[in-house]
Structure formats: C-alpha cells, structure tokens
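Notes to self, Ribosomal protein L11 methyltransferase:
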Amino acid sequence: MAWIQIRIDATHETAEGISDALSETGALSVTFIDAKDDPILEPLPGETRLWGETIVIGLFDALTDMDMVVEQLKLWPTMPKDFNHKVEALEDKDWEREWMDNFHPMQFGRRLWICPSWREAPEPDAVNVLLDPGLAFGTGTHPTTALCLEWLDGLELNGKQVVDFGCGSGILAIAALKLGAAHVTGIDIDPQAIESSRENARRNKVENKLSLYLPDDQPSDLKAEILVANILAGPLKELAPLIAERVQAAGKLALSGLLQEQADELKTYYEQWFEMDEPAHKEDWSRLTGIRKS
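result:
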C-alpha cells in the first residue's frame, strides 16, 4: 500500500495542537521527531515529552487530497496561523523484511548469543537462543534486555528454578533455560506475549521446561531461586511485594526497564526484602540486582 505524509515544523508549545489537527483531518498516524538531533529520554508512563524544535508527521493514504487537508489544517483552531509544511510520498517498502534484514546475531556475556531464527548462528558451539519476537517486546537490542541477558550469562543456572516476570518474547526465559536452568515460569499481561514466548520456546526445543501464565492464572505458591523482571519502574514498585514473595530465601533478583534517575529510589524500596547491589547502567538505563533476605 502506498502512503503520503505531511511534515509540519513545530515547537513543544504547538506540537500537541498540530497533532490533534492532523488526527481530526484524517491522519492514520501522527509521529513526533526531533528537528535538531537533540535526543531526550524515553517518556515515563502517561508522560509526553517533546523536543524544543519538533517536526510533526501525519501519515495519510496516498489517494488523499493533500491540498484539501492543508486547507482544513489552516482553519483548525489548534494550528498556528502560519505553519511550514512539506508533503511527500513514501516509498512502498516491505517493512517487515527490512526489519528482518537489520536484526543480526548478538553476543551477551561470555557464552550467550541471541540469533534471529532466519539467520545462521555465528558460533554453533555457543549457547544460542533462536528468536523471532513476533508482536512481543524483546530482541536483545534494547539496553534493558541486554543488561538482563548479561546478568543471566554470569550466573550458575544449572538445575535452578527461574521466574521471568514480564516475559515478552520469551528471550530471558529461553536464555535461562539454554544456560542450564531446570525450569522457568514466564508471566505476562499480554496474551500475544504468551504466544510469542511459547513459539520461541518450541523453536529452541525447551517448551517442556517453560510454563507460561497471565497474571491472574499464576500459581499462588510460586517461588524460585532466581527472578528477573524487565518491565518499567512504576510496575516494579507497585508489584514489589508480589515479586519479593516469588523469590525464596537467598534467591537472586534482577530488575530492569528503569531509567538511571529511577534506580536509587527503587533500590531503596526493594531493600525491605533484598540485600541490594549498586545499580548497573547501559546508556540511559539501569539494572538492579539483589539477594533475598532470610
């Protein structure tokens, strides 16, 4: 399918109003990008943070009369009176194929490789996880996932029981199993994530060692020697008592999905239940680890 887009110059004061106007005039999607290569941190849940100079992009079907769209935008009350804009056609691409072409095998720690299922593993004798994330989060490219994979690679997992809290694509659960864990329980709020984890477990021939649950279905007596949770700082704090309950005495914990400025507060909060280590950082993100108190 062919597309056409309109790019409109904005500031942080005008961007939201322009977005509303584009939506009301039929845009199929609206995107904000930085006009001055000035990166900002990922917004917190429920928060929208914009650059000082922003380009707002509205995406339309290629058959749309863009002259009429521009005239409608000029009349919209939330639009600046004079706005710079550019209308351009988009090349019709196989976006899924392009993404697949750019997802390469990656090494984490000493032994562990994450390999796209459609590529050959570069180190056949290494611990290789074959991954097709599908609609679920988790390829290893995000710093939070990388931090968790590196932590798992550094553990002695042989025979251990593990919980993957927020399992997504199953990347952490399957990595733990390939590194020697006896059994992993994966929990996620998204049914698509459960299905993605299940398919990736089959692909790696570890499906018999992986149990998957939606939160309401998880066993009430579930406990493990190791728990990893790669979600967000807000849910990690909200779910802290439940997460702590899932880790047996002297068990190990890893938390990720939090920004560096959130790490110290969350570390202090978890010290109610765990002997916490100093945070580990990658780019703007952090990982917390600890050992469950007796």
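- The radius of gyration is 23 Å.
- Residues 36-52 have pLDDT under 50 and may be disordered.
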